[in-house]
Automatic annotation (TrEMBL):
Keywords of the record: Methyltransferase, Transferase
Enzyme Commission number(s) of this protein: 2.1.1.-
GO terms for MF: methyltransferase activity
Protein name per the record: Class I SAM-dependent methyltransferase
Classification of source organism: Bacteria, Pseudomonadati, Thermodesulfobacteriota, Desulfovibrionia, Desulfovibrionales
Annotated GO biological process: methylation
Broadest EC class assigned to this enzyme: transferase
Length: 214
């Protein structure tokens, strides 16, 4: 591992957005080496593959929500997708993502708030490693649905443990009951393989009346 334990502790113990963004500022430059190299972070590859299953055409306009340094975007690029857009709250992570030249646009925004993005703007949204402890809460699903066109897809991971504790499960079910989206697949998948941490890997299809009023 390149980073010291203090850097990682800051990410896991941050109690507000300012502390979390400060932690990512310290981590941004070593993030790829630590996650892929040391932790065996396989979630980006698994999510890109899950999205590829429902998006065979590579012309889709895709939002990478909580893009971090662009690991998901890089894998989607390798699969041939060329209309990728990035969003993250951390300017430091966005800076690293931008340096990879894979996104058509990058936006600094908070996924817990209303986004300055038009309704139905994307064919698909992918959100990996971001629906987790202390990062983005379950209300973010509503915005992800709003910016995805009807019949478009949303693919995301939720780290094991956070799924029920952070209210993600309840919100996902409420949105299904409200016909905002329908479940395409949910599987238990490796997340940090070398640390034996798993996640829920979920793909939803946004429904025509996808205005979430649940
Ligand atoms: C563990 S990283 C995952 C990054 C990337 N998707 C990946 O799989 O490598 C979590 C990302 O969520 C971002 N993040 C945390 N809170 C956020 C928020 N409220 N809105 C948008 N992004 C946020 C962080 O800045 C960080 O880049």
């Amino acid at each position: 591992m390149v980073s010291d334990n203090k850097t990682l502790d800051k990410v896991y113990t941050a109690s507000n957005h300012t502390e979390l963004m400060d932690a990512y500022k310290d981590w941004a430059d070593n993030y790829d080496q630590d996650t892929v190299g040391s932790f065996g972070y396989v979630a980006p590859a698994a999510a890109a593959q899950a999205l590829h299953r429902v998006l065979p055409g590579t012309g889709a306009r895709i939002l990478d929500a909580g893009c971090g340094t662009g690991q998901v975007g890089r894998i989607l690029t390798e699969k041939g997708y060329g209309d990728l857009h990035a969003l993250d709250y951390s300017e430091d992570m966005l800076r690293v993502a931008e340096s990879k030249n894979i996104y058509g646009s990058l936006m600094q925004a908070d996924l817990s708030k209303k986004l300055k993005i038009d309704d139905d703007a994307y064919d698909a949204v992918v959100c990996v490693g971001t629906l987790t402890y202390g990062h983005v809460d379950a209300t973010a699903f509503d915005e992800l649905i709003r910016v995805t066109r009807p019949d478009g897809h949303i693919c995301f991971t939720i780290r094991e443990g956070a799924y029920e504790d952070y209210g993600y499960r309840d919100r996902m079910i409420a949105l299904e009951k409200a016909d905002a989206w329908e479940l395409v697949s949910m599987e238990e998948a490796d997340y940090l393989k070398n640390e034996n941490v798993t996640c829920k890997l979920c793909t939803y299809k946004v429904l025509a009346d996808g205005a979430p009023n649940a």
